[in-house]
Amino acid sequence: MDRRKDTIFKGTSLPKEYLEMVQALFNKNFKKHLSAREVFLAFGEVFPDELVMAVSMKHSGQLGMTTCYGSVDFPLANGPKGTANQVQAAAGQCIDAIASFFGTFFDEKRPVDYDNEYRQMWTAVELEKNKKTYLRINRDNLELDAQADAILELDIEKRNKKKLN
User: Fold this and answer.
1) Which pLDDT does position 79 carry in this prediction?
2) Is 7 within a domain?
3) Which terminus of the chain is more exposed, N or C, with fewer CB under 10 A?
């Protein structure tokens, strides 16, 4: 998953149950805009300095997805106390901004020329005063990326085991 910040920190995936809840929320709220072959998928990671969420609209039979990333500085400067509360607040802020994008995306009849319609670079948006979220829109297939990463990790583990023997 792409990050806005170029640091060496490793991330931790958000809980599967939480991401499934986000998917269900997007699928329910945008149901009237989806064809029978489309579904939303959610991804998220928290880093010591950033939280990144991505929601992708998967088109069955196509490799490319419509993916909107949301990123906020973590922990939030004006956020609640406690790690779980901080993660939830930061993720909620990203989800609101991503939902706003998809609302506009559907209102504008699904524009496909992203180079002209949307920026593929991180762009700051402020839905509420002093709550800056960075968005990036592209055609990333994060589901496929995750599968490829898992295969590569297995291969690395096998090579390391062979070196030990």
Assistant:
1) 78
2) no
3) C
